[in-house]
Amino acid sequence: MSAAVIPVEQIKTITMSIYRYDPTVDKKPYMQDVVVEIPTDKDIMVLDALHLAKQQEPSLSYRRSCREGVCGSDGMNINGKNGLACVTPLSEVLKRDKITLRPMPGLPVVRDLIVDMKQFFDQLEKVKPYLITKSDSPDIERKQTPEDREELDGLYECILCGCCSTSCPSFWWNPDKFLGPAALLQSWRFIADSRDEATEERLDDLEDAFSLYRCHGIMNCVSVCPKGLNPTEAISNIRNKLLTREKA
Amino acid sequence: MLVNEIINAKDLPVMEFDGIIVGGGGAGMRASLQLAESGLNTAVISKVFPTRSHTVSAQGGITCAIQSDDPDDDWRWHMFDTVKGSDYIGDQEAIEYMCSEGPKAVFELEHMGLPFSRTEEGRIYQRPFGGQSKDYGKGGQATRTCAAADRTGHSLLHTLYQANLKAGTNFLNEWFAVDLVLNTDKAVVGVIAFKIETGEIYYIKSKATVLATGGAGRIYASTTNALINSGDGIGMALRAGMPVQDIEMWQFHPTGIHGAGTLVTEGCRGEGGYLLNKDGERFMERYAPNAKDLASRDVVARSMALEILEGRGCGPNADHIFLRLDHLGPEVVHKRLPGITELSKTFAGVDPAVQPIPVVPTCHYMMGGIPTNINGQVISVQNGEDTIIDGLYAAGEVACVSVHGGNRLGGNSLLDLVVFGRAAGLYIEETMKQGVELKNASHDDIDKALERLNKLNASTEGDQVSVLKEKMQQNMQNNFGVFRRGDLMEKGIDELAKTREEVDSMYLQDKSATFNTARIEALEMQNLFEVAEATAITANERKESRGAHARDDFTERDDENWLKHSIYYAETKEVSKRDVNYRPKTVQAFQPMVRSY
């Protein structure tokens, strides 16, 4: 036997139930069962299984890039819970050799597992997700103590995959008015940065009934974040800052 | 007009910009930032949302003499290390520019908000990396790589995206560039591109086109590279009659996770980690008595491959090496290397604070690329003479300026992309001020750039993309890997010639227009194939061992014949030579020496 042939007992078949929709052909979305063979002597990721499915069904569409959980392309709904396909081991989500994949909920579907992220990114842009400084830059770097830098841990790592905002009921109801957990985490990332000089302006922008205050602390965002970040805590930090700030 | 129709120039809508940048990674967004801030009408064409670009995966840092760890550090020492690391075929004028301009470019990133890790003094944290020295190799290991934990690429890419949002850059996100449009003077006057979501296709006209499409590591079966790294810019340039330089030089990173290929930063060894064979021996002490585990990447990768070949690999199949970190203690591992901890748990099932990580040398970086000068202008080489191609620029991994020569030092890729992305932007800004006149492309010129897409759309039979890709990747892996040999390379080239016909006539089954990833993968495959063939033919032609190019049949460096760049054209499939630049402006050139670590 040549090395390339995998012995039969090391393979099993699984059923992938996948949301399919191509707006130019399909009147409405449907679930398609694709049966693929996977190795049993090693674990593979959901993305690897999707790749096997695509070899059979070349028209199956999904986003992917880094395949290691740092680029945020392949957020999707895996057995009812949002996650990144590339870092979700199949063994953790297979139930009776079956897995169900749908696009992330709450955003318009472009095709198959691909959603239109426009609303998500529009909300991100509203929080001015960039450092704002008013004083002159020094010739070298701005100084920041290790303690001040530590304030950014748990914030700067966000990969903008959208898993959190699209699992948030408040975002589903008001995706145009409530900024959503991802954008608010970024808002706090800049408020918390000792180098940023626009805290008041940032807080002013959040003083309405929807942008921030539609968060009801459901914490779906925390339970799905593939990077282990905590948007709910960031939101509560912003609330505290708003409550305690002294009006000029 | 949609991407799945038979498309002709006269019906094709036109969009127009002063400057376009193809690629939304670090180099592309640094160039676009420069142009947007100068008020030029600029657009970034990126096939993925910019923060999904492969720069995001860079871990360990950006190497630069900012004098934080060592107030006496000197960019000239960095230059010396880079020249030596390149095995003396890096262009010294370009390396001088990168190392001396570097601090400015790094401080700018910090001013934009990049969350660098910090020292007790509040300055940017730096860590030791491979191939770094003080005092021109005489002062021991340097500590020169600026880091944001082990997520420097992620931090850099997001910071550049943020700065571009602030500057008001136009982003054409999830647009795919198909081919360059050339006018009758052979000047580049834009690209054909389509919006992936809807399939709407345009001629995007521009006076300056910057290729910043990154690398092509997916020509190999095992790579640290993202799935999107398909050498699109190289494919476009070669099809348009432009050359590639030193394309045989591929870096194999010593530490890709065994099986998965995901990168484990050199910063692990910078923080004190080391490699072990199955006997528990720190074998790098034998191969590089001074630098040991922090020797240059080509040296470490070859040493590991030899250990495995000679039967001293780890695991039941003796097919990998262990990277040990647990002696550093959980504090260092979790604080300095949090991303590595996460990746090791996910892809190797080990916590590096407790167990060693199984690693193997894995394809990582394309040192070669489209030849440019230090302004990013693309160069054509005819009969030994350089000529500048009007309207076309390249920066970052797709370009070969050349600062990496035969082997890139860790942390120099991020520096390369910000310094030369910035340089291209600055130069374009200047030329636009002076006014640029380029002849309009005719319908015939535009139709030429549409040929590839139309042919694919018309296909009714042929091989599937996934089958062809696997064939090419295995071929490259088996015949053009860490060690190379003439007879195997010739066999590989013959196989590629057969695959070429299949790639030219492959079958696109799904002809739909809306977010059709099958069409994207087919177009990417054709680009990958151009890179693979150029690599194979040039590797066989360079009859010496230098940098990452190690031949069993020509084991020595041959300065007499090959202290040269290789130049390859796809039309003729011929390889010629180009002089290496030994004319830095402010220092004496570093002459070739025996390279030991």
Structure description:
The N and C termini of chain A lie far apart (80 Å). In chain A, the strands form 2 sheets. Chain A has a 5-stranded mixed beta sheet with strand order 2-1-5-3-4, covered by helices on one side. Chain A folds into 2 domains: 108 residues, Beta-grasp domain (Ubiquitin-like (UB roll), Roll); 127 residues, Orthogonal Bundle (Fumarate Reductase Iron-sulfur Protein, Chain B, domain 2), CATH 1.10.1060.10. Chain A is elongated, with a radius of gyration of 21 Å. Helix content of chain A is 29%, strand content 15%. Chain A has 248 residues and is α+β, with helices and mostly antiparallel strands. In chain A, a hairpin with a 2-residue loop joins strand 3 and strand 4. Chain B has 16 helices and 22 strands. In chain B, the strands form 6 sheets. In chain B, strands 1, 2, 6, 7, 8, 9, 16 and 17 form an 8-stranded mixed beta sheet that branches. In chain B, helix 13 packs antiparallel against helix 14 and helix 14 runs antiparallel to helix 15. The mean pLDDT of chain B is 97. The longest helix of chain B is centred in the last third of the chain and has 25 residues. Chain B is 35% helix and 19% strand. By secondary structure, chain B is an alpha/beta fold. Classes of the chains: A alpha+beta (248), B alpha/beta (597). At the A-B interface, helix 4 of A face helix 3, helix 4 and helix 10 of B.
